[in-house]
Each structure stands twice: as structure tokens, then as C-alpha cells.
Amino acid sequence: MAVNTSAEAPLPVGEVSRLIGGWIDRLGAVWVEGQITQLSRRPGAGVVFLTLRDPSYDISVGVTCYRQVFDAVADVVSEGARVVVHCKPEWYAPRGQLSLRAAEIRPVGVGELLARLEQLKKSLAREGLFAPERKKPLPFLPQLIGLVCGRASAAERDVLENARHRWPAVRFEVRNVAVQGVHAVPQVVQAVKELDALEEVDVIVVARGGGSVEDLLPFSDEQLVRAVAACRTPVVSAIGHEPDSPLLDLVADLRASTPTDAAKKVVPDVGEEYERVRMLRDRARRCVGALLEREERGLAHALARPSIQDPHRMIDARAEEVSMLLDRGRRALRHQLDRADSELTHTHARVVALSPAATLKRGYAVLQREDGHAVRAPDEVEAGEVLRARVSAGEFTVRVDH
To answer: Which of the residues 51, 120, 307, 398 has an alpha carbon 20 to 30 A from that of 234?
Structure first.
């Protein structure tokens, strides 16, 4: 329950310490997991002092136990070991200090560690942190590479030397961190975040040499996995040797089997690229040469055609054909005109021969009444009727004398 206090009615320090001790006593015994960072076994002392640390959150708490409790696991437990402790929280009121009184200590075996890692792996996989579609492609030629590794380590040397051997102009932004132990996780996480915040860093490589399962535990830590998953910069995992596979390998955008392999995958080889450029240039030259040869053959084939060699040949042939047709048309037209002229002459002669004028020229005359009708029979006229007589040279009038 909350304690009612005020500036006028404060609690003494001793009372506050007593209340805290009461609250902690009500917690009871608990099982706690952590990593031993300090171990103090004084000769002849009946109590052993430990410092238990949570590497994921950089929190430590002191642990005390009787010598016989620690002696039960003294052969398998040392500084750096992960243990599970059954203990009861205690509050030392005079100093205001929290500690744990251990009743049992159990070392965490490799099998148990692997089982927990497998559970964490399945949990993170369900969240989609290992999904292939989340992987970001690496740049072809990074201008600045971020490297997270141990100080003066073989992994750092392998990455730097191999990368510069492949591409001498490559630049690195190196962050030296602890790669095992209680400080590894927070330092690696901080280094990854710092490099990810730099706009000029194109890719981040997290490298470490091989080691035992316990040594590689920091690279399977959930906090580190989530930090890498949140990076905007592509991350390459180069942890351990070929058989080693921490969870960082699964969340990273690319897994390299070794630090040397990471350098080969991140940086192209200048010699190989030069050879590839030469091959592409030769292939382009061959393609262009083949294209020119094909076009030259096509042009030569086109030039060999009669129509190209003698372009007027077809026109001359058609001109002769047109001339022949023109002559034929003229002859045909002349023949038609001659025949039509002959027919017209014959027709004209027949018309002239059959015309009334020709009849009149032979001495005949045509008698016409006043209305213009020709007289064909005597009974068509009456006595005394005046008729008009038309002869070849003209006409005159006559009177009928019946």
C-alpha cells in the first residue's frame, strides 16, 4: 500500500528502508538467470559473493550464498558462466542495498541454451523478422563500409585486408566492441545503431571469429536481433565459422560464412571487374562487328541486284514498251480513222446519189402546195391552184389547169 507523506510529515530514511525491506520480503524465493561477472571466494570464509548480470539490459545484482551451496557447482561454474539461481531477495537496511541469497545454483548447459535459442528463434520467426522479403539488397560498390568487430581481432584483419586487396579504394568506419561476455550485447547494439545513423555508410558488417556456443550467445540475443531488423542499412553477418549459425545470421540481409567471405561478398574484386569489363567490351565489339558484317553483306547483296546496278534498265524497258504500245495505238487509231473515212465517203456518195437535189439535177421537179407538202398524186390538187415547182436551179410557181 502507498504511504501517505508530505513535506510537513516526511518519513525518516530508516523508515523508508524498513518499508522497502518489507516489500522485498513479500516477494519470496524466485529463480533467476544471469551471467556471473565477478566471483569472490575468500579462503576460510563461509560465504561466497557473486555478481549476476543480465547482458541484454546491462543490469547487475549481487548474490551471496554459503560455501557448501557454491562448492556443489564450483567445478563447472566460473566467471562468465550462465547460471540459474534459486534465491530470495534481501534488503540490507543499513546500507540500502539489494542482494540475492542463493539456496541453489545450477549451471545452464549447452543443450538448455540451444533449446532456449530454438524457442526464441521460433518466436522471432512468427513475427516475420527472418522473412526473405525483408532482406535488403547490398550495393554493388559500397563507398563506406561500417565494420563492427573486436579490437585488433583476426576478424577485423581478415575483413580489412581482403576488402582492400579486392578494391583498394574501399573505406571503412570501424567500431571496436566486446564480442563476448557481459558487455558484448549493449556495445554491439550501440555500434550498429551508430553506423546505421550515418548516411554515408552503405553496408554494415558484424564480424567475429569462431568460438563456442557460449561465446557466440551475444549474437543470438533478442535485443541485438531486433536492432538489426530495424536497420535501414543492409547488414551482413559474419559470425564464427561455417558450422556456426547464431540468430544474427537469420535476421541479417546477407550471411557470410566467415569474415573473409564477408569481404568477398561485400566488395567486388577489381581484377575480376576489370576482366568482366574487358569481356563485355570484347563481346560488344564482336556484336558490333557481326552487325556491321551482316549489314555489309546485305548492302552488297542489294547492290548486286540488276535494279541497283543499272537503275535505268527497267525504265528503258518500260519506255520501249510504252513506245511500242504508242505506235500500236497510233496505227490502230489511223486504221480506224481510215476505215471510218472510207465508210463516210461511201455513205456520203450514197446519200448524194439518193438525195432530192441529185434527182432534180437529172431534170426532175418537185411540186409543193402552199403548206409545203409535196404533191404525189393529181387528185391532191384542184384546178386553178397555184403550186410551187422546185427544180435544180431554183423554183417557180405554176397554176393547175385541169
So the answer is: 120
Q: How far apart are CA 393 and CA 399, in angstroms?
A: 20
What are the residue ranges of helices labelled H in 94-173? 110-126, 154-166
Q: How confident is the model over 236-267, as pLDDT tens digits?
A: 999 876 555 789 999 999 999 889 999 999 99
Q: How many helices (H) and strands (E) does the chain have?
A: 12, 13
Q: Which of 120, 390, 150, 346 has the alpha carbon at shortest distance from 248?
A: 120
DSSP, res 202: -
In 146-221, which ranges are continuous DSSP H helix?
154-166, 184-197
**CB burial class (10 A; 0-12, 13-18, 19+) of residue 156?**
buried
- Rounded Cα distance, 391 and 384, in Å: 21
Q: Give the residue among 254, 253, 250 at the shortest CA–CA distance from 123.
A: 250
Q: At what angle do helices 184-197 and 222-229 cross, to 10 degrees?
A: 10
Q: Which helix (H) or strand (E) holds 85?
A: strand 82-92
Model confidence at 286, pLDDT cuts 50, 70, 90, reads very high
